[in-house]
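Help needed: design a sequence for this.
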């Protein structure tokens, strides 16, 4: 049995429901499968979805799922030796694929890349100038125009997910904890620790996390991480 909430591709959210669409970067419209269009300014969100999970404690991209509940997965940690040892087939230069039972996956989540981020950023913020002072005190949750989002969110066709907003700073993955109206962004490193974090200007907070304030234009690959809270329930209900 296929997981009913599996999806991949590009989607637009209107009135709380998501629809598959096609979208070209910086375009003013999204296009639906029937050829109809809608201005992106009327869309709550426009995003692309890639699905990831863990298989035998290793991250994989869930490339497709069939009606029998079999998933075609790609090894996503660039570890060819592990892939070969675990029955993956080397198909392209650095890509290893395997077909597995969808129920054998764990930690299932959607990476939702925000396709309107650069458009939204240009509307709300000017590029930083020399001498600009960034926000120093971060109290409470700060957001601008609905970004960033976090917490358990329900909606969009019955999906329930634990959401964090993420981006890259100097090539390093970070969680986006807050955005202020002056363009200051509070981030937590998801990869750096100790001396490497300090060298990149992060400070260890009382909560044990390495934090830094940067400008919104310092971020790349802005996206939301949606940890699916219904996948385990489905997997357990279909176990033989």
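Sure. Designed sequence:
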């Amino acid at each position: 049995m296929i997981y009913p909430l599996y999806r991949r591709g590009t989607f637009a959210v209107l009135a709380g429901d998501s629809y598959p669409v096609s979208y070209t970067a910086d375009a003013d419209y999204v296009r639906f499968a029937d050829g109809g269009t809608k201005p992106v300014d009327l869309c709550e969100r426009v995003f692309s979805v890639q699905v990831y999970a863990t298989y035998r404690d290793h991250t994989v991209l869930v490339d497709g799922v069939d009606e029998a509940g079999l998933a075609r997965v790609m090894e996503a940690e660039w570890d060819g030796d592990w892939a070969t040892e675990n029955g993956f087939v080397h198909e392209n230069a650095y890509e290893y694929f395997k077909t597995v039972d969808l129920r054998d996956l764990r930690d299932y989540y959607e990476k939702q890349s925000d396709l309107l981020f650069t458009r939204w950023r240009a509307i709300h913020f000017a590029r930083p100038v020399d001498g600009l002072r960034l926000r120093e005190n971060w109290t409470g949750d700060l957001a601008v125009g609905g970004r960033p989002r976090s917490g358990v969110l329900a909606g969009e066709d019955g999906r329930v997910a634990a959401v964090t907003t993420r981006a890259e700073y100097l090539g390093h993955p970070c969680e986006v904890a807050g955005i202020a109206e002056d363009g200051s962004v509070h981030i937590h490193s998801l990869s750096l620790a100790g001396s490497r974090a300090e060298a990149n200007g992060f400070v260890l907070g009382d909560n044990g996390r390495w934090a830094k304030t940067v400008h919104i234009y310092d971020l790349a690959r802005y996206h939301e991480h949606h940890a699916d809270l219904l996948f385990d329930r489905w997997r357990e209900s279909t176990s033989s």
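The radius of gyration is 20 Å.
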